[in-house]
Amino acid sequence: MTNFLKLRIIAFFFLSVFILNACKTIENLPGGDARENPPDPRERVKKNLEEGRGFRLDNLGNSGKGGDFMFASANELWRASLDVLDFMPLSSVNYSGGIIITDWYSEGNSLDESVKISIRFLTNEVRADALDIKVFYKKCNQVASCKVSQKTGSLSAELKRQILSKATIYKKQNQEKNFKPYKGGTVDTTK
Predict the structure, then answer these.
(1) Rounded Cα–Cα distance for residues 148 and 20 (Å)
(2) Which of 11, 105, 111, 181 has most Cβ atoms within 10 angstroms of its Cβ?
(3) SS3 assignment, position 105
(4) CATH numbers and ranges of domains, the chain
């Protein structure tokens, strides 16, 4: 077979897999609730763009400009998590993947014990089940053999409490900053 024919077969295969996967994805989408969506299409478009669920064609031609990462600083849970973990060195931080992993950290007086924290974001909403926090402890002896274990307990619960309380404050500040009173005309109720 010629290389061109092989290339066409491979392209057809990948295109078929892509189309079949897209059909399966569309089939599993949940239905929308009419009570939560505005009836006017322009308002729905505006709401979807504000929530980051859409794109505009007039923004596609902006060449030379990288991505717009303003959303990471607008996410209250993300900002609160970074603020709470500010004292620890970070090993991996990935907003799009929804995970923060610290490096091993130990205080000055206990060099043989260290802690590592990973925070996984399950949702962007500020609520108790939005975060999956795992705390790992590493204890090493003088021979440099270390034992790593995951522990659930007070540190994980305290981190979650601090992050949620700080995120709630950020959310309230954002709502106050973005609050715009209705400036429409007056309604004549005498008719």
Answers:
(1) 44
(2) 105
(3) strand
(4) 71-178 (3.30.530)
Tokens of 35: 């009570």
What pairing do the DSSP bridges indicate for beta strands 131-140 and 90-94? unpaired
Helix, coil or strand: residue 97: coil
- pLDDT of 162 reads 93
Point out which residues pair with 175 in neighbouring strands.
none
Type of residue found at 39? P
- Spatial CA neighbour of 98 closest among 115, 128, 66, 75: 75
Tell me the CB-side half-sphere exposure of residue 160, using CA atoms within 13 A: 17
Is residue 167 a contact partner of residue 76, using CB atoms and an 8 Å limit? yes
Rounded Cα gap, residues 100 and 135, in angstroms: 12
103: helix, coil or strand?
coil
Task: Give the span between the Cα atoms of 176 and 188, in whole angstroms.
Answer: 29
pTM above 0.85, yes or no: no
Q: Which residues of the chain have pLDDT under 50?
A: 27-28, 63-70
The token pair that represents 83 in the structure block: 């603020």
Sequence-ordered strand ranges (E) for the chain: 90-94, 99-102, 113-121, 131-140, 146-151
